[in-house]
Amino acid sequence: MRTIELFDTTLRDGEQSPGAAMTPAARLNIARLLDAAGTDTIEAGFPASSTLTARSVAEIAGSVGNARVAALARCVRDDIDAAADALRPAVRPRLHVFLATSDLHLQHKLRITRARALEVIADGVRHARARCADVEFSAEDATRSDWAFLAEAFAVAIAAGASTINVPDTVGYALPAEMLDLLAYLRANVPGIDSVAISVHTHDDLGMATANALAAVGGGATQVECTINGIGERAGNCALEEIACAIHTRRDALQCQTGFDTRELQKLSRLVARSASMPVQKNKAIVGANAFAHESGIHQDGVLKERATYEIMDPRSVGQRTRLPLGRHSGRHALLARVRELGYTIHTGDSGELERAFAALAQRKRSVRDDDVRRLAAAAGCVLAEAVVV
Predict the structure, then answer these.
(1) CATH class held by domain 2-276
(2) In whole angstroms, what separates CA 104 from the centre of its chain?
(3) Bridge partners, 101 (sequence order)
(4) What is the pTM of this model?
(5) Domain spans of the chain?
(6) HSE-up of 165 (CA within 13 Å, CB side)?
(7) At residue 70, what are phi and psi to the nearest 5 degrees?
(8) Which of 320, 322, 336 is nearest to 268 (CA)?
(9) Sign, Cα dihedral of 10, 277, 321, 335
(10) How far apart are CA 212 and CA 33, in angstroms?
(11) Local confidence band at 350 (pLDDT 50, 70, 90 cut-offs)
(12) Sign of dihedral through CA atoms 328, 329, 332, 335?
């Protein structure tokens, strides 16, 4: 079974979310927790962007003991030197260099020809390789690039010393079937590709970041670039929690695995949300407050009888727990289960009165809390056992 490496870019692409700038201390805490959870590579930042970022990258590089620490640089020698200097304390440094390859970017942003782009890639990767043994090359806007030219750019990067090539869907434009076809094309048309790792970096502009990453994995990618909570430019990146749990839950179909400890996901999610001042929406997959919450009476009844009826993952495997919040959609099974959990004994005659009182209250309140349940149970004549610990 193949192992897919996770390249976390929360501290680089994630922090580029508007208003998401984190303190150096918060960045260090996130890096340490990512390292402890088994992240393969932690992209710590873009050192050439500021002195503060360069110092933070160096601090992280000196504090991470297991994961690789990567730093981003344009294919510009000054950028590469700044990144290499920041990575000096790292046990396992990686220089991550990039250049756009789509005609749209070449003509309107960089204003260079394809031929010149190939020269810049060759020079940049060679210079990076001279400063670091582990070099990743990213072809920005790869999914909107001419495939033949993209293959040529990757071939040049590999010949110049890149050990990982990255295929970014920079603006979230691709469809999963296109990602699969693109990976197949590159594997068939890039000389030397079998000797390097193939990475994919997907954005969520059309809501398909994780789907595109999984398609790329199916097409032979060996690394996925992602962020905690899916934060990042515009609509964000492929969420680490989604790709890790998708691979873990559907390894039967995907025939691959990761080395990431998913039990740390909830802790990481909360730390990133707090540090970046970006709250997680309640219905966010894996880490949202409602990800394992069931209010519908039919669902609650099923979960009470057998958790797997409505949960495809054990919530404990991702640091969560099953919740059965009570509200207007809840049924008698969840209500009576909660009354018993709170320590009350329900006699046959109490049940009907309790259920009627609950139904009336649930029509007036958005959610019925434990204190409400206690009052209803007492009013219905339910008996509270002594020394109950909830």
Answers:
(1) alpha beta
(2) 28
(3) none
(4) 0.93
(5) 2-276, 292-390
(6) 28
(7) -110, 150
(8) 320
(9) negative
(10) 27
(11) low
(12) negative
